[in-house]
Amino acid sequence: MTGRARIIALILGAQTVANVGPLGIPAIASLIRADLGLSLAQAGSFLSAYYIGPSLVSLPAGTLADRWGVKRLLVLGQVVIAAGLLAASMAGSYAALVALMIAAGFGYGMLNPTSTKAVMGWSPPAHRATLVGLKQVGLPFGGMVGAALLPALAVALGWRVAVVVSAALIAAGALATLVIYRDPPEVTVPAAPPGSRGTMTSVLASRDLWLLALATAIFAAMQTVWMSFLVLYLESAAGLTLLAASRYLALAQLGGMTGRVLFGMLSDRLFGGRRRLPLVLAGIGSAACTLAIAGTGAGASSIWLAGLAFVFGVVGIGWNGVQHTWMAELAGPRAAGTAVGLGLAVSSAGVTLGPIAFGWLVQTAGGYRGPWLGLAVSMVAALGILALVRDRRLAGPR
After folding, report:
1. How far apart are CA 365 and CA 372, in angstroms?
2. What is the distance between the alpha carbons of residues 6 and 390, in angstroms, rounded to a whole number?
3. N or C terminus: fewer CB in 10 A for the chain?
4. What is residue 196's predicted lDDT score, i.e. its pLDDT?
């Protein structure tokens, strides 16, 4: 295995295990709800709490990665996630559980922009979106493992033991990163021209970076609503058991794995380095799937549910690597980590607010149909904002 392949495999592994616990928790939300006496909105809010951390930490963490290098932040991020989940497994109330999920999320706010910067440094320009998309496969892959592993562990041993196991996996990933990771030897980041803005100032002053971040915040809100409520919805509206419903969440995460590589390849190859069109396709597809699930209820066939879950995973989860790549390219190598951090901070706000608003609407409306339709309509705003971003292709040979 080449040095590049080894490092990208390491980062993919770190991204994967870091998401097993946080993204697997929605699959056992009904067990946590019963144990702690939670409402539906509270049971659907765990990912919202987790992503408060990235919304606060991603931007400064990206800047620190630009200044100090990535290894320390990669290791520290995983350690913080593991410690937060371990503590969350001992929570005795909703307030304590939410506070500890927020604390764990601070670690993911360190890990995600830093790992993107690492992959960008190891990637040739012609394969950037593909390799960043491959790295981002870790999120749905971890979610798929979590949706498959945590319910089985929780039913057999209790939800607390399941969360402890996920924390142990992350701690092992931190140790592997400490031992194996190194920076690419050939990368040289150009020095800032005299009198130029600092990386934080240049990123915060960029119209295009803000527009892209705001548009994809809506994408992220839709993605997380699906991940937070799919199992709960299928249990209540389609009458499925916890284990049966969690399989469809795992299938959606499998679709997300496929989509993150597919959209990266489309952007790099078919669209010649353009980043907007893959995101437009993802947005339209996500809205269509959300309209479809609004009309799905009791009596839906397993083939229909499997197809809908997988297709949403492809379009609703698969866009992320292209967004990371576009943010980094708009900012340039000197500010890539800061730019990705901005995108993650803003999109994490969407992740936090989306499921909370959706859960409140479900309780207020007394059902899911209206909130699903409203979620689909919100994508129109996202695509309108995305149209204002100025796309740029890399100059020179690809």
Report:
1. 11
2. 35
3. N
4. 44
Rounded distance, CA 183 to CA 173, Å?
Answer: 17
Q: In the prediction, which pLDDT does 273 show? A: 80
Is the distance from CB of 295 to CB of 237 less than 8 angstroms? no
CA triple 45-216-268, angle to 5 deg:
130
**3-state SS track over 368-396:** CHHHHHHHHHHHHHHHHHHCCCCCCCCCC
Provide CB contacts within 8 A for 261, sequence distance 6+: 130, 133, 134, 137, 321
Structure tokens at 117: 């910067």
- Kind plus residue range of the DSSP H or E element containing 98: helix 94-122
Q: Is 178 helix (H, G, I), strand (E, B) or coil?
A: helix
Name, in order, each residue with C-beta under 8 angstroms of 124's C-beta and a sequence gap of 6 or more: none
Positive or negative torsion for Cα 289, 295, 296, 301:
negative
pLDDT, one tens digit per residue, over 221-241 is 999 899 889 988 998 888 888
pLDDT of residue 232: 87
In the chain, which residues have pLDDT < 50?
188-196, 394-398
- Which region, left, alpha or beta, applies to residue 197 given φ > 0 means left and ψ of -120 to 50 means alpha? beta
- pLDDT, tens only, 246-292: 889 889 988 988 998 899 888 888 888 888 999 999 999 999 999 99
pTM: 0.73
- According to DSSP, residue 273 is labeled T
Amino acid 397: pLDDT: 36
Of 18, 6, 5, the C-alpha closest to 111 is: 18
Whole-Å CA distances, 296 to 146, 292, 372: 25, 7, 11
Q: Which domains does the chain have, with CATH numbers?
A: 3-180+200-386 (1.20.1250.20)
Residue with tokens 């495999």: 9
The C-alpha atoms of residue 54 and residue 341 are separated, in whole angstroms, by: 9
- In angstroms, the CA 384 to CA 176 distance is 43
Residues with Cβ < 8 Å from 188, sequence gap 6 or more? Answer: none
63 neighbors 338 (Cβ within 8 angstroms): yes
Burial of 80 (0-12, 13-18, 19+ CB in 10 A): buried
Question: Residues 133, 12: contact at Cβ < 8 Å?
Answer: no
Torsion of CA 297, 298, 299, 301, to 10 degrees: 50
The structure tokens 């389609």 sit at: 238
